[in-house]
Every structure is written in structure tokens, then in C-alpha cells.
Amino acid sequence: MSQTPEELRGQVNEARERLGATVEELAAKADVKGRAQHKAAEVRERIQAKAAEAGQHARETASHARHAMQDRTSHARHAAQDRTSHARNTVQDRASHAAHEVQERTSHARHAAQGRTSRAGHAVHDRTPDHIWSAATRAARTGQQRPVPSAVVGGLVVLAAVAATRGMRGRHAGHAGRHRGWGTHHGGRW
Q1: How confident is the model over 98-137, as pLDDT tens digits?
Q2: How confident is the model at residue 172 (pLDDT cuts 50, 70, 90)?
Q3: Residue 189: helix, strand or coil by DSSP?
Q4: Where do the H-state alpha helices sit in the chain?
Q5: Phi-psi domain of 148 (left: phi exceeds 0; alpha: psi -120 through 50; beta: other)
Q6: Distance, CA of 185 to CA of 93 (rounded, Å)
Q7: CA-CA distance, 72 to 60, in Å (whole number)?
Q8: CB within 8 A of 68, min separation 6: which ones?
Q9: pTM to 2 decimal places
Q10: Rounded distance, CA 62 to CA 81, Å?
Q11: E strand or H helix at 25
Q12: What separation in angstroms does the CA of 129 have from each of 15, 93, 156, 162?
């Protein structure tokens, strides 16, 4: 049963919308740098707030210690300075650890996104019939030799995706039809 031109246009539009949504979703997932920058900014703000709090606390402690220690020996003053230095080192260590953790998470997220993108590309490649890839390769070579507007190339890509989708559906339908004597076989493809 052949389809009408309106049905075919509807299928092409539907495939185009699905392809656009998939591309947008992959682009959003692949924006690891943007997500990492946002996360780094949040961590940096938390570190700055903690550093300011620790600095305020250290200043208050130093002031109190200074007033309380005026009548004490220089040994007590050195002990207070050591505590202040230790607090500063602790804050710096925590900041360094947090920055390292952000870098590791960013790297992990980037690798995960690259893996998902690669798997998605392989899935598309595996599901697309060989004759479609051959046609796309020939079209790309022709495009390099004789440049055409990008809208035409985009249209060809959409048509190739639609043809691949229809080809897979046709293969399944042809397989079922072959048992009943229906379908036509062309070079290993239905």
C-alpha cells in the first residue's frame, strides 16, 4: 500500500522534529564546560564565604587573644599566632581540596558526556543502512568539489535520516511479507 504525498510530508516533518529534539538534547548534555563553570562558581562562592568567616573568626580570636595576652609572656603570643596560621592553612587546604574535587568532577562529567555522544553516534551509524552512508559520502565529496547552500545539504541529511528510518521499518515489514509472498528484494535491502 503506497503512501500519499501528504503522509510522506508528515513523516518527514515528524522525523525532522525528532532529529532536532535529539540534537538539542545532545547539545545540552554535551555542555559540560557550562555546567562545570557553574559548579566551579558555586564552589568558589562557598570557599570565599568560608574563608571570610574563618578570617573574621581568626581576627576576632587574634583581637581577643591580643587583649588577654598583653600581660602574658611572649610565649603565649607565639601560641596564638601559631593557631591563626594553622586556621589559615586549614582554609587553604580545604579550598585546594574543593578545587581539585571540582576539576575531577568536571573531567568525569566531560568524559561521560563524550562517551554518551560517541555511543549515540555509533548507534545512529549502526542503524543507518550502508547504502545511505555511501550516498551521504558521495554527497559530501560532491559538496567539497561543488559547494551548495547549507540548506540543501541539511535537507539531504534529513532525507537520509528519513530514508534510514523507513528502510528499517521496510526491512521488518518486508521480512514479515516475504513469508506471505509480499515485498521486493533489492541487493540485500528491502
Answers
A1: 888 888 888 888 888 888 877 877 777 777 778 777 877 7
A2: low
A3: strand
A4: 5-30, 32-69, 74-127, 130-145, 150-178
A5: beta
A6: 70
A7: 18
A8: none
A9: 0.28
A10: 8
A11: helix 5-30
A12: 17, 56, 15, 12
User: In the Cβ-directed half-sphere of 12, how many Cα atoms lie within 13 Å?
Assistant: 15
Rounded CA gap, 161 and 16, in Å?
9
Alpha-carbon span 123 to 112, nearest angstrom: 16
The number of helices, as runs of H, and strands, as runs of E, in the chain is 5, 0
Distance CA 115, CA 101 (A): 21
Are the C-beta atoms of residues 106 and 40 closer than 8 Å to each other?
A: yes
Asked if 12 and 158 touch (Cβ cutoff 8 Å), the reply is yes
pLDDT classification of 13: cutoffs 50, 70, 90:
very high
